[in-house]
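Researcher: Structure for this, please.
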Amino acid sequence: MEPVVSLRIAKTIIGLCGIIGNSLICVVIYRVSALRNLTNALICHQAFIDLLSCLFMLLHSNIPTPSQLPTGIAGQLYCQLWNAPVIFFTLMVTSTFNLMIVTMERYFAIIFPFQYLRFFSRRTNIILMLGVWIVTLSYKLNDMSRYGMKNGTCITRDVEWKKGLGIVQFLIEYFIPLIVMMFAYVHIMVVLKRSEVRVAPTVRIPPTPAMPAVENKEQQTGESSRPTATTSQQQTIMMNALDKSLRRARRNTFKTLALVYLAFLICWTPNSFIFLLWNLGLQVDNSSVVYRITVIMAVSNSAINFVIYGFKYKQFRKGLKVLLQCDERLARNVTSFAEID
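Model: Predicted structure, token format:
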């Protein structure tokens, strides 16, 4: 159980909100078939990871520590997996790596569209999602060795390579993903800006010379003939409209995921630097208001994405309306957005 009452209350509220919000994201994407594309599958996976994080945080903050710990292997596992923050931070790192994959999926879709169509598929998505878990578990569960049980009490072991480990964790879990995603979003923004400049020209329908018979009819009826578009001109108009819709949908997805990245940056930066400085030998006051605020900011990242999707992601909003209202007209609108994204 979280010993600090203020943190326990904050984690409980954030955990409940995160469970509800991330569950809705998963249900909407799963139930609304029009939303089942590669990007939304990764977003659903992100929500599932955050859901597990919030669930663990809620239980860990409110279930009291037993007065007497079990002995033997059971006691060691309790101290290493439940009492220690190993599982929670493993889920946090998994969420960060998955966010990086979502970013790179959008990066290749916009920057290298032909290669994207060739290499990205449902099978690729499954491999990437499984790879995130395998890499994170292989890397992060080594932290279990830092925790154990002695004389019936859970302890944290000091390690000789604490500074080196702290720097490596800071780079792998925060700084490198941050830089990779920053580069991707800046490059995407530049490309989208350039594509707005190179818009397709507006198609103007040239006046069609009137035939004599038509002129006679016009003189008799007093009506004027209106020029009509040829088949090729109509196709060009439709292509221009489709291209405009495609760029609009891509911009919306880009802006939504960029906000998710910005939320990650704001929520995790303070606590990540405090963690780095602590590993380098700086004394950190865990009871200070500033430290507790950084903890609340970090854990809130698991619950904030639903708010971003709800306010910014048009596909998700339409899908949620379909799920709540069972409106076929809305379902068709969602389909039109999902197919062009």
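Researcher: Any notable elements?
Model: Confidence is low (pLDDT under 50) at residues 200-227, 335-341. The first helix runs from residue 5 to 31.
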